[in-house]
Structure formats: C-alpha cells, structure tokens
Amino acid sequence: MRRFLVALQFLTIFPVKIKSEIEGKDFGASLLYFPIVGLIVGLLLSLIALSLFFLPALVRAAAILTISILITGGIHLDGFADTCDGFYGNKQVEKVLEIMRESRIGAMGAIGIVSLLLLKFSVMASLQETYLWKTLIVMAVFSRWSQCFACNAARYARKAGKAKYFIEHSRKRDLFVGGIFTLALSLLLMRSKGFILFFLSIIPVYLFIRYIKTKVGGMTGDTIGAVNEIAEVCALLSGLILTPPF
C-alpha cells in the first residue's frame, strides 16, 4: 500500500500522507503501480468527458486538457519543456544537463509546450464521444507505464536526484506486469484496436527513449516526464487513426 501511495503522490496532486519513512527501493517498487494511478487519472478524465457531452467538442476538449494538467500539477509538462530546451542544438552532455536543471523555461521549451498542447487539444476535439472516453483511459495508463519503461531502459544520467531511485531500483518484472495490465485494459476497452493502439504507440516511445540515451547517456526526471508526454500524444494519435472522426 505504501508503494502505491508513493506512486500516487509522485504522479498527482492528490493529498497523500505516508507515515513510514520512504526508502530508495520504495521508489523503484512504486513503478508497478504507475499504470494503476494512470487508470485513476484516466477514469477521472473520462468521467469529465462524459459529463460534458452537452458542450461543443472544442470546449469539452479544452476542459479535459486543463483538468488533466491540474491533476498532475504539470510535472510532466515541466519535464518536457526542460527537455526541449536542453536537447535543442548540438550541445555537449554537460551543457544539456545544465540547461535542463534551470528553473526558467526557454524559447524552445515554450514552443514545445504550446505545440504539444495544441496537438493534444486538436485530437481530443476530433474524437467522437464514444471513443474519446476510452482513448483517454488508455492514454493515461499507457503513458504512466511508459515512464516505467523509460526507467528500466536506461541508467540515471546525473550523479544525484530523486529520479535516480526510480531508475536504480526499477525491476523488469514490474515493467512486464505493468505492460500486460496496460495491454489487457486496451483490449478490454477497444478490443483488437486496443492491441494495435498499444503497439503503434510503443514504437515512437521506444525510439524517443533511444534518442534520449544518445543525447545524455541515460534518463533524468525531466526526460521521464517528456516520455510521459510523448506517450500521451502517441496514444491519442493512434486512437484517432483507429477510430472514425466526426
């Protein structure tokens, strides 16, 4: 239960109290529960989508997108922005990591966030209500599992940081179990299209993780957040490709 609470505390703004001391291995073990937290987030977003059926598609999409940011506190968006700033241009690894650590968002980070949000918004507005709520659930679960994938796929690129514990104590078993859970949920909600969506989405996520490794030699907290955002976009786009638009 403690490790589930660690995952919930890290991935959302929900008030969570953990009485016992959190050890490094608890962070790694909490990755098993990332898809479950994603399911909670996805269910909330799908309920919002269904409850706002009477609104125009553009307004509904804006509301869903805004609430999704509020639920997570924008932590993944922040990591995506820092990654855009750091990775732009041909810089040395040390310079990339230095830029990513800065609290200020640069021009490329701002452009990246705007582009990402516009893409998410346009896809959410384009999906039929029948498919929107299902895609939102799959998106939230798949993207959180993708963070587990990222932690298992690379070493920690810095000497110290909170993300170090997630990466160093990540377990292949948790990655496999989380992947089975994500795929099973996709099949349950979307049948054969869920299977295709999963593998259509995982290919660009895998390539993005490899790209990160070539740039900085491993993962950081920022790049894990960026992987989450890329995974969300991939799941949304795959859902749009596989389901009929308006």
Entry summary:
By secondary structure, this protein is mostly helical.
Chain-wise SSE layout:
Blueprint: H1 2-11, H2 24-29, H3 34-51, H4 57-72, H5 75-87, H6 93-101, H7 107-126, H8 129-153, H9 163-168, H10 172-190, H11 192-216, H12 221-242
Distance between the termini: 42 Å
Shape: globular
Give the rounded overall mean pLDDT. 94
Q: Helices and strands: which structural class? A: mainly alpha
Write the H/E string, N to C: HHHHHHHHHHHH
Pick out the low-confidence regions: none
Number of strands: 0
Q: Measured on Cα atoms, how large is the radius of gyration?
A: 17 Å
Which bin fits the share of residues in helices?
Answer: over 70%
By DSSP (H or I, 4+ residues per run), the number of helices equals 12
**Tally of structural domains:** 1
Strand percentage, roughly?
Answer: under 5%
Main pleated sheet: none
